[in-house]
Amino acid sequence: MKLKLWWKWRRHPQRGVAPLSFAVPVAYDYKYLPPVIKSFYGIADEIILGLDKDRISWSGHPFEFDAREFKSMIRGLDPEEKIRVIEGDFHSGPNPMANDTEERNQLALACGKGNWIIQIDSDEVLLNPWEFKEWMDSGKGSGLIMAHSVLVFKKCGDELLVVDKENHQHAVGTRLPGGYIGARYTGQNKKLSPLRILHFSYGRTPEEMRMKLTNWGHSRDFDTDQYFEFWKSVNLDNYSRLKDVHPIADWDWPRLRKIKDPGIYQNEAPRKEVLNEPRR
What we know:
Blueprint: E1 4-5, E2 20-26, H1 33-40, E3 46-52, H2 67-77, E4 83-88, H3 96-109, E5 116-119, E6 124-126, H4 129-137, E7 144-156, E8 159-163, E9 169-174, E10 190-199, H5 206-215, H6 224-233, E11 256-260
Parallel strand pairs: 2-3, 2-5, 3-4, 7-10
Antiparallel strand pairs: 1-4, 5-9, 6-10, 7-8, 7-9, 8-11
Helix pairs in contact: 5-6
């Protein structure tokens, strides 16, 4: 696959440890990027952002993208010139999940040789990046690195409804470039890291949520219209009565709980304790 390089970058790897390359697919929700990049910028040796060259999503739908705004945003986030933006065809595979996986593989192959490849989505904020770096630098990482995750299901004023699941994890890291077989999963043995992530996956406006459901890697795996109507119906009055709310594997999200919005998208610093707030 031919990839287009937008601008130069330089890396500052530390001696004695494998550098950390952060890879982030970018599309219709690029405006979520600033807090995400800020959350790991200090520990990243390089940052690779992937963008479909035709502005077409994994599901084959065109999306709006303001290139001038995006470039200005990235320049403001990149004082040390760690960021590369590459463009490629990330929409021509047989299905959305194949495109998702292909883009992640291409971004991984663009990372520095021998680096740890840390795949972060454009709506995932790292809450304890320096603890994670210290753990990675200690040599404890192996195989497929997993992170603790709290997934935001819905924003309700100054409250967030999040998935209430003990030990909720997802994959983030590998040193196997081009080895993804399903989104961020490689088939390697899993190793749980101390990394904690607040994932604003469904914590969006209705318009943004509709866009996500019809364009992400799982867009053909369930009835997105029906699920969107269900999602809209969830509120602070009924959330505690709901069970099994995952759109595909319902058991994977057994219930919801409520936490205070830490203000990450209101120019406030993220609070790592959001993962440990008491259930209400």
